[in-house]
Structures are given as structure tokens and as C-alpha cells.
Amino acid sequence: MSRERNSSLDGIRGLAAVGVFAFHCWLYTLPTVFSAMPAAPGTILLHELRVGWVLFFVLSGFVLFRPWVATRLDERPLAPPGTFAVRRIARIVPAYYVATAGSILLLWPLAGAPGLRLPDLGNLYLFAFFGQNFTPGTVMKLDPPTWTIAIEATYYAILPLLGWLALRGRGRLGLIGVPLAMIALGIVWNVTGPIGSALVWTKLLPAVLPYFAVGMLAAVWVHGRPYQPRQGLALVTAGAALIVINSVLHGIVGNGGPALQPAAAGDLLAATGFACVIGAAWLGSRGTGWLGSGPLVNMGTVTYGFYLWHVPVLVWLRAHDVLPLSAAGAMAVAFPIALLFANLSWHLVERPVLDSAHRSRPRLTGPAVEET
Predict the structure, then answer these.
(1) Residue 254, pLDDT above cutoff 60
(2) Boundaries of every domain in the chain
(3) Taking the mean position of all CA atoms in its chain, how far away is CA 62?
(4) Are 305 and 350 in contact (CB under 8 A)?
(5) What torsion, rounded to 10 degrees, do the Cα atoms 147, 201, 178, 52 define?
(6) Contact at 8 Å (CB) between 91 and 354?
(7) Dihedrals φ, ψ of 359, to 5°?
(8) 178 in helix, strand or coil?
(9) How far apart are CA 55 and CA 215, in angstroms?
(10) Closest CA to 212 of 70, 25, 75, 372
(11) DSSP per position, 182-204
(12) Taking a C-beta distance cutoff of 8 angstroms, is the pair 82, 362 a contact?
């Protein structure tokens, strides 16, 4: 297994996308499209697939912090900030712009369709600058999943500063100080959030900093460790247990039970579980090999386009009365269409732009920055 590209991480990315898609297939087939916690156990399971977006943040933290970890612990050269910026822009901006323009063309004529919330025309420009999360008039509107892309963009912008701060410390202790501070800041942010603007407050980077942070901590922990095919099985088991516990606690609270999980912690238990699984996959642990299987890896390759396009596809299909009003039926009908859009995005937009960016900015000798 190559340390330059770990196919299991691609598989994890693909699995996260499928989970989010299944959640949205359930959500966008409800009589009223509203993400309240359901009561039935089966629908609670579908609802909790929403944590796929948490997995995306944890994976970003893990993958993108690795170069700073290697620079500190292995004394390898770090790519110039310009190289990082060019590749991050190439990774998210062109496909995002195409999907946003496509969403406007597909959905704007469908005003009033179930599940469709359009922003005010005067605020539409905010989407061009990843600013849709900053106002109630645009957050979670048009193509709702792009709220996470806006947060990713903000994280990319501050990551060089976080890396610089991490390199000021000594050894691993210095590296973990920054993500630990991020976890503390995120919890404080969520505790002190104003009730009146809760939606906007929870859709800004500080609210989800802990999820990126646990991925960064995992990157520090696995660095330099040998492959552990057996020992890592305990890590996988613990990670899966934390993810399940997180979902159970949310299910209990959502159905009127006691608040067993502080709201300020959000999905931190699930994020920690995901970090365990990612770390185990990176170490080649037993029980993670299936994550590198062909279908999941292929899905992981086109995940970004799939993530950008699947909700507009669901909304358009329902508006034209061709979407079955069951989660399973919606998945069967919408998946191949969303996958087609994802492949078009990958082959016509993402891959050409990424290839150009890599040719213009040759890699230094040192740790690879995997695309996420």
C-alpha cells in the first residue's frame, strides 16, 4: 500500500457521499422537507446518515494537515503557500461554479417546488464568494450541501496559518496544540451562540472546527507508525462504536429523551469515531481492506461532483413528479442520474483543471497532498 495515495481513503470518501445521498433521498421524499428527528427506528437510521458531512471534514483535516506533520517530524520541505493555494482553488472552485450555475438554471424556474428554497436575487452574488453561510437569506438555500463547501474554503484559507502555528511548537506536542485549541474554540463557539441566529451561527467554520481538528490529531498520531494489520482492528471497533453511540444519543434527544449529549459537542463523538477508522485504514489495519474496493474507490474519485449535484437532481425530479416518494425508490431513480452528473463534472471540469494545476506547480520532495 502506497503512502502517496491510500485507496482506502478514497473508499471512505465514497462511502461518506453515499451516506449523505441516502439521507437526502429520505429527506427530499418527506411530505414536508424538514430535517427534524423522526420517531421510527428505521428512519432514525436514515436521518443519522447525515453525519457523512462530518466525515468529510475529518478527512480534510487528516489529509491536508499531513504535510505540516511531515515537515515537523521528518524535516521535509513544505510546498510554498502558492502551490497549496493553486491546488485548493483548482480542486473546489471550477466544479463548484459550474454546479452553482447549473443549479440556478435547473431550479430557478421551479420556485415553490417541495424542498426548494431559493435565495433572494440580490444576494445571489454571495455564492460566488462562498459567502452563502453568512446571511439567513442564503444559508442552506439553492443547493443546500454547498454550505459545507463554503466552510471547506474557509478552512483552506486559514490552514497555512494553523500549520505555521503548529510548526512553532516542539515535536508532536507542538503539533497537537493547535487542533486541541480548535476543539476548545469550537465548543465555546457553540455554547455562546445567539439563539436568534442559530442557523447562521452553526454554519460557520468555528462551529465545526472540532471535526477538522480530530482529523488533524489523527494525522499526527499515525505519522511514522508501521502498518498494523491486527492491532488496528481495535481502533476500527472503537471507531464504529463511537459513531453508533453518537447516533443513539441524537436519536434519544430527538425523541424527547434526556439530553445525554451536550449540544455544544455536536457530533464530536462521531467525528472521533471517523478519525479512528481513517487512522486504521491508513495503517492498513485488518477490517479496512474493503474500503479500497473498486466501486467505493471509483465513487470516491467522483465524490465532489456527486455531492454538488445530487440535491439539485432530487429536487428537479420531485418537482416533475418522477421521484418515488420513498427513500429506496428515490435512491434507485436519482443515483444513476447524479452519478452521470458527477462523472461529467470529473472528466470535463475537475480532472483537466487539477492536471493543469499540478503541471504548473511541480511537487517538492516530501509528503503528498491527497486531493479531497
Answers:
(1) no
(2) 7-360
(3) 12
(4) yes
(5) -40
(6) yes
(7) -70, -35
(8) helix
(9) 9
(10) 372
(11) HHHHHHHHHHH--GGGHHHHHTS
(12) no
Cα 137 to Cα 197: distance, rounded to the nearest angstrom: 12
The residue whose grid cell reads 465513487 is: 299
228 residue type, one letter: Q
Rounded distance, CA 268 to CA 58, Å?
10
AA letter at 332: A
Phi, psi (deg, nearest 5) at residue 250: -65, -40
- The answer to whether the beta carbons of residues 211 and 58 sit under 8 Å apart is yes
**What is the pTM for the complete model shown?**
0.91
**Is residue 357 exposed (0-12), middle (13-18) or buried (19+ Cβ within 10 Å)?**
middle
Distance between CA 103 and CA 314 in Å, rounded?
11
Q: Is 75 left (phi over 0), alpha (psi -120 to 50) or beta?
A: left
Per-residue pLDDT reduced to its tens digit, 189-230: 988 876 545 788 889 999 999 999 999 999 999 988 877 666
Query: Residue 229 and residue 250: Cα distance in Å, rounded?
Result: 32
Grid cell at residue 349: 471540469
| Cell numbers for 109 | 424556474
DSSP per residue over 59-96, as a string?
HHHHHHHHHHHHHHHH-PPPPPHHHHHHHHHHHHHHHH
Asked which of 134-148, 169-183, 247-261, 318-332 is least confident by mean pLDDT, the reply is 247-261
The rounded distance, in Å, linking the Cα atoms of 17 and 67 is 25
Three cell numbers, residue 193: 451562540
The C-alpha cell that represents 164 in the structure block: 505555521
**Distance spanning both ends of the chain, measured CA to CA:** 19
